[in-house]
Prior knowledge:
This protein is of the alpha+beta class. It has 4 domains: 1-208 and 289-419, Rossmann fold; 218-282, no CATH class; 423-516; 524-736, no CATH class. Helix content is 18%, strand content 29%. The chain has 12 helices and 39 strands. The strands form 9 sheets. Strands 1, 3, 4, 6, 7, 8, 9, 10, 11, 12 and 13 form an 11-stranded mixed β-sheet that branches. It has a 7-stranded antiparallel β-sheet with strand order 25-24-39-26-27-29-30. Strands 28-31-34-35-36 form a 5-stranded antiparallel β-sheet, with no helix packed on it. Strand 12 (343-346), helix 10 (359-370) and strand 13 form a beta-alpha-beta unit. The longest helix has 26 residues, at 233-258. It is flat, with a radius of gyration of 33 Å. Residues 1-20 and 707-711 have low confidence and may be disordered.
Amino acid sequence: MKQLLPASLALVTVLACAAARADVALPRIFSSHMVLQRDVPVPVWGTAEPGEAVAVIAGDRPPVKAVAGKDGKWMVKLTAMPAGGPIAVIVRGKNEIVLDDVMVGEVWLCSGQSNMEWPVSASASAEQEIASADWPKIRHFKVEKRPEGYPVGDVPSAKQWEVCAPATVGAFTACGYFMARELHKELGVPVGLINSSWGGTRIEPWTAPAGFDAVDELKTLAEQVRLADPRSPAHKARLGEYAGQVEAWLARAREAISGDKPSPALAPYPPELKPITEQVASSPHQQPTALYNGMIHGLIPFAFRGAIWYQGESNHREGMLYVAKKEALVRGWRRLWGNDFPFLYVQIAPFKYGDEPPQYLAEFWEAQAAALKIPNTGMVVPNDIADYNDIHPKNKQEVGRRLALLALKNTYGRGGLVADGPTFKKLTLEGDRLRVEFDNVGGGLVSRDGKPLNWFRVIGEDTDFEDAEATIEGGAVILRSPKVPKPVAVQFAWHKAAEHNLQNKEGLPARPFRAGDVPKRDFLALRIAEAKDYTLALEMDLSKLGRNIAYDADHRPRIARPFDRIAYFLELQREGEALQYLYVSMDAFTDDLGKIGIPAPESKAVFQQKVAHANVESNAEGIVTGSGLAGCNIEFWPHNYGPQNSANIPDASAQLWDFGDQYAPPEDGYGCMQVHNSEAKQTLFAINNWKSGAAADIGIGNSAPTNERTGATRDWTFNGNAGGYTVKRLRVLVREKK
């Protein structure tokens, strides 16, 4: 018996009855008001009773037929249709489904994290945008949030496709909607948006297993996914190993029962074999492939023109590794759809990200730009429309417009369009200036606000990075700085706060970049003026710390004259962070050159005393700097030590490892090399437990007041953090008497 349902109830009723009657059923992506992709064959698929004949009729075209297989699955491909509509799509088997008000036009998949999920209702000028949203040929389908351990055949959605109107548009993806509005105006065709996004998510959960397999740098993730997939040989092999362990345990357990003996414990189930969403219970939606499984896989092979992507905030500290992950995402999706569709994405915006180093975000921008090596991709730059204090810039209208520009030029072949802002082309050294040439200058380079160009910095052979005067000269920018007489390299917008003002006349901002060869810089020579009066005695790369102290440079045999001051210069840098340095000089506390370095037992150096006329310079935040400081002291010894303030250092704690500790046997113990400003209640620098190498304690300034592993400490004792630095260098200097 044929069943004809009202359009608004067709899908829900059919799905409810399918299990009981094996009626023809469709995935949720097929509903009334949908948009089908124009000019390409359109797959339509579903389930029915095995062997059931199914016919699909689109508008006035002849039926396209299929027969459900043994698994109940069927698929047809509608012949390519031009833009238009509305039409009805009828699916007939033992029952009939009618989808009405179906349009044919351009379909785009919209995915990513919160800036893609961000709705029109929360965007700039939301009230006016909603009131004017009378675009009935723009349609929106929202995939609900659902992580899954394995790929599922349908996506979750409580709603059908929705027609754009003031009553509905507030919930649309803002980036997608404003892009669709531009495309609809320019192309004159219906536009459909499939919104599968989830705020705060990383890129890995959106990636298909095939994507991880395709990228060598992600072998660890690929193996994790394979082991969690019960269909994979790797999973079956590991499960077989565990089954063997269980069988052996059963045999031993039976022996224990018969012999009245205790049984050994059964080995726990291997966690790597659990579904991917069960491996980290607190964040199933952040696990590799979890959102692909639940929110993308069920859309395959729905036909669409391209994808837009706005994501990266949750991966922004990964630098160039993100290029591999983006490649895995794109290659995986394209392989599964069998289509190298356009993939357009948005570079994340300037944002403060707490107190993290400013270059982290700049390095991530560099990675996002490097991902343009993936064919048929494009990137929007939003630095000029950001809000440094809000990770969700509200001007999604301009983001959508720029996405549409990329699509119109590169996907739809609109000639004469400028769709990118200025991009770095070439750097030329010209004496005391640099010439930076750009591509995509359009009608010319301009300052967005009419003010001098900002966020350009240059560096020379003997200088640090300094702000540069930037002048537009044709399609180039000329850079000079009075502090850098011979510049050799440039950074542009290389800071998380860089809302710069360089753009082309078409209003598209320049892309952040760096270029040139940055020279190795000696901050001791660059920043410490008094160092020119001192002689280098010792130098050591602290990555070589160990029981035996071996300096990289030991110039003490060349120092023949007496010395009246001693100085220490410590440089530390963690991956992705700026280099920190601390310089402290003081009146000589010994006349023995053998006792001025790391106080290993053979040095016989044991000092717990105040030092006079200390000079302190540092770029580390919070360090009290100055000349002639009277409140400084040193703690140098190879012994163990405790927090008791045996030397009665003012303001030191007797319970806290700080600037007033007490050494104790054995002499060849933990080891302490610390300089403090006790008057400021501050450790200047510390090198402790050097025998442990990468597990030594090294730091500038006070360490955290509490350490979850060891308790209270301000002088880096027990931190074991030396391995966390990529640069760690100590220099010891003396001022020879004239």
